[in-house]
Amino acid sequence: AGRRGDYYCDASRVGGQWCPEIDLMEANRHAFQATPHSCEAPTGDHHYTSCDRDGCAQNARALPGAYGHGSEHKIDTRFPFEVRTHFDDGGDELVGMRTVLSQQGRSIEFRSCAS
Fold first, then answer.
1. What is the pLDDT along the chain (115 residues), one digit of tens a residue?
2. Residue 107 forms beta bridges with which residues?
């Protein structure tokens, strides 16, 4: 159990325990980011001792005119849009993540941890 007596864990050790984490959608009307976080291999007792707090994020702000509040953006956050996340695996291991945002026939795509 973690510091609070629960079993919460994440890549920043917020609950007192490390573990791999995937942030599928960290967003507001100006920015959208998706971030997988990896960890070192677990110890013999299945505990992680270190994780990548920053992760390997991709932010829609890196794509000019792609995402934002207004009609000049492909994804206009004044209106609903769809989010799809695809996981790329290398056998038994996550090797990347692809996020596709779509709205009224328009879409943007970005990759996190792409090799």
1. 566 677 788 999 988 889 999 999 999 999 999 999 989 999 988 889 999 999 888 888 889 999 999 999 999 999 999 999 998 887 777 788 899 999 999 999 988 876 5
2. 102
CA dihedral sign, ordered 51, 8, 34, 97: positive
Which residues are CB-contacts of 31 (< 8 A; sequence separation ≥ 6)?
A: 59, 60, 61, 67
The Cα–Cα gap between 31 and 33 comes to 7
Query: Is the distance from CB of 97 to CB of 22 less than 8 angstroms?
Result: yes
